[in-house]
Recover the amino acids of this structure.
């Protein structure tokens, strides 16, 4: 365990320095107190409420330890002034449990920045707890899902500080969709084995949280209260038992959901155009399901080290004789059960992920085969069209060539017109008629034949030139491909 500056449990001091907490009472070589102070200021609007008369802070104070008679005080503070006065009362409880709530996970904590700083300053709360407090700045982010592992520190006086963030699923009261919400509870615990005194701070995600209600029930039972004070980790077990088993039912609902998605994916006929469209929707649904399941592994993975840290602390408490063997054994047994269950839930999540990936692969492969078949049909059709185009091109080429041969002569004939020929001229005896060819007919021959030759030659020349250009471009492209590959 890490060493830190000495701290005292419920050491009644003025709130001097509360406005710059934790700067001023931590060893700056270990903790950058000024950085934490500035971060609290920056996140104040997201972390804390603004109205000092709109608080919801419950404090349970237990007086008396061991075999002595216990007196319990339970008050809910909605005013900053009343909470301020309660903190500085002279009588020191042996156990203090502070519950700070949210209206829901979308809202800030039901406490002002000033009162939170005063509570943390008054109880000399380790600044390590701020790392969990900062997670309440807004709706949980993907980057926070793996955070929250327990930190346990010990002071030179032998006191212990425990902090962690527990994430878990909880039913939200909805009936038809999204019946579960992922919630978080922040925990701080200072325990002094010399005086057998404890200070707990719980950051609850909703008002009237399950743990908060169970703490009230526990404090109303003298027998339960006595057993809880006999071992400081029993209240942690109360928190764990309130929420960890929710994972089983949460994963069970996911299992049913996955079965429905698998059945839908396996019964789709991709040859049917309507089902082919549905197959894309099913694939997207499975990928969305996979994205929802992935963070569960991170949250369970973060929970496991917390349980191991509590097991280690339980061993330490036994070694320093802060608890007896019987209480140690009971707590050890329950922690072992929680560890075993969390590992089982992690195996269940891994199974869900494998089955989801298998369904995604099966559906994706079917869609790929369908697309490949469609592409093959399209290619066949394109090939047929290409052949028809080639045939048409050959016909057009012939027609073009014939046109090129006859066009010059037609052009010359049109130009010369009837000026070269004479039809219907009467003979000298006045009988009949004769056809007369002009003496300049040679001009027609002299122009049309060279022009025809020139036209055909020009066409052949242009065709050859275009062919050469295509071959050069192909050679350049091949050379670039060879260069890039080398």
């Amino acid at each position: 365990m890490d060493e830190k500056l000495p701290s005292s449990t419920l050491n009644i001091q003025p709130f001097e320095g509360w406005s710059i907490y934790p700067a001023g009472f931590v060893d700056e070589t270990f903790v950058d107190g000024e950085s934490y102070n500035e971060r609290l200021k920056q996140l104040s609007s997201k972390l804390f409420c603004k109205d000092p008369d709109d608080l919801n802070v419950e404090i349970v104070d237990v007086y008396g330890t061991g075999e002595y008679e216990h007196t319990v005080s339970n008050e809910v503070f909605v005013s900053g002034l009343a909470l301020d006065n309660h903190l500085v009362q002279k009588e020191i409880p042996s156990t203090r449990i502070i519950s700070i709530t949210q209206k829901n996970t979308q809202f800030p904590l039901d406490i002002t920045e000033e009162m939170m700083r005063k509570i943390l300053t008054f109880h000399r709360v380790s600044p390590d707890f701020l790392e969990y407090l900062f997670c309440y700045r807004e709706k949980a982010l993907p980057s926070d899902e793996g955070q929250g592992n327990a930190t346990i520190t010990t002071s030179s006086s032998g006191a212990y500080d425990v902090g962690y963030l527990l994430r878990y699923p909880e039913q939200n009261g909805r009936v038809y969709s999204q019946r579960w919400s992922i919630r978080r509870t922040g925990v701080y615990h200072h325990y002094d084995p010399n005086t057998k005194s404890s200070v707990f701070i719980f950051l609850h995600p909703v008002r009237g949280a399950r743990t908060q209600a169970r703490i009230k029930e526990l404090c109303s039972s003298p027998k339960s209260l006595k057993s809880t004070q006999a071992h400081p980790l029993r209240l942690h077990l109360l928190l764990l038992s309130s929420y960890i088993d929710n994972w089983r039912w949460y994963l069970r609902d996911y299992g049913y959901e996955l079965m429905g998605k698998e059945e839908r994916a396996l019964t789709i006929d991709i040859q049917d155009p309507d089902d082919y469209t549905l197959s894309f929707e099913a694939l997207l649904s499975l990928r969305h399901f996979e994205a929802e399941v992935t963070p569960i592994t991170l949250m369970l993975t973060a929970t496991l080290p917390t349980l191991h840290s509590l097991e280690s602390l339980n061993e330490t408490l036994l070694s320093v004789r802060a608890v007896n063997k019987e209480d140690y054994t009971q707590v050890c047994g329950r922690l072992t059960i929680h560890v075993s269950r969390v590992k089982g839930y992690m195996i269940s999540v891994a199974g869900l992920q494998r089955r989801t990936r298998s369904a995604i692969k099966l559906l994706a492969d079917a869609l790929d085969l369908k697309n490949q078949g469609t592409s093959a049909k399209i290619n066949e059709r394109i090939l047929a069209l290409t052949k028809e185009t080639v045939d048409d091109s050959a016909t057009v080429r012939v027609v073009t060539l014939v046109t090129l041969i006859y066009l010059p002569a037609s052009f010359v004939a049109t130009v010369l017109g009837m000026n070269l020929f004479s039809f219907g001229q009467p003979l000298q005896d006045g009988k009949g008629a004769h056809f007369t060819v002009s003496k300049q007919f040679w001009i027609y021959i002299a122009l049309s034949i060279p022009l025809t030759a020139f036209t055909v030659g020009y066409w052949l020349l242009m065709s050859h030139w275009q062919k050469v250009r295509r071959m050069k471009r192909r050679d350049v492209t091949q050379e670039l491909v060879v260069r890039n590959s080398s």
About this structure: Residues 219 and 225 are 5 Å apart (CA to CA).
